[in-house]
Amino acid sequence: MALGSAKPAFRCESCDQRKSGRSTLSVTSRRLCAGCSDQLAATAAAMMVNSENPVGQAIATTGWLAALRAHRRARQGD
């Protein structure tokens, strides 16, 4: 039976929400939604870049990088 334009559903292993569409497999083999994948990548990048105050600066940088990735992904869909 053909599903037409239905997208596959999965449960994000980070936010535990049921999502449809594309998922990302993390380095530790967790299946993540786009938002959680952006958060993970942004946090990793922020921790590597901010060496003086890694936790405080990384929190601020994480939000900025995750928002930038979400904006770019939304723009590519247009």
Properties at a glance:
2 helices, 78 residues
Describe this structure in words.
This protein is an alpha+beta fold. Helix content is 51%, strand content 13%. It contains two helices and four strands, in the order ββββαα. It has helices spanning 34-49, 54-77, and strands at residues 9-11, 18-20, 24-25, 31-32. The strands form two sheets. Strands 1-2 form a two-stranded antiparallel ribbon. A two-stranded antiparallel ribbon has the order 3-4. A hairpin with a 5-residue loop joins β3 (24-25) and β4 (31-32). The mean pLDDT is 80.
In terms of topology, how is this protein built?
Blueprint: E1 9-11, E2 18-20, E3 24-25, E4 31-32, H1 34-49, H2 54-77
Antiparallel strand pairs: 1-2, 3-4
Helix pairs in contact: 1-2
Summary of the model, kept short:
By secondary structure, the chain is of the alpha+beta class.
- Poorly predicted sequence stretches spanning 5 or more consecutive residues: none
DSSP helical segment count:
2
- Measured by DSSP, the beta-strand proportion falls in 5-15%
Order of helices and strands: EEEEHH
User: What percentage of residues falls in helices of 4 or more residues?
Assistant: 40-55%
Instruction: State the secondary-structure class.
Output: alpha+beta
In total, how many beta strands? Answer: 4
Overall morphology = elongated
The N- and C-terminal alpha carbons lie at a distance of: 31 Å
**What profile does the largest beta sheet have?**
2 strands, antiparallel
The mean pLDDT is 80
Question: Order of strands in the sheet with the most strands?
Answer: 1-2
Radius of gyration: 15 Å
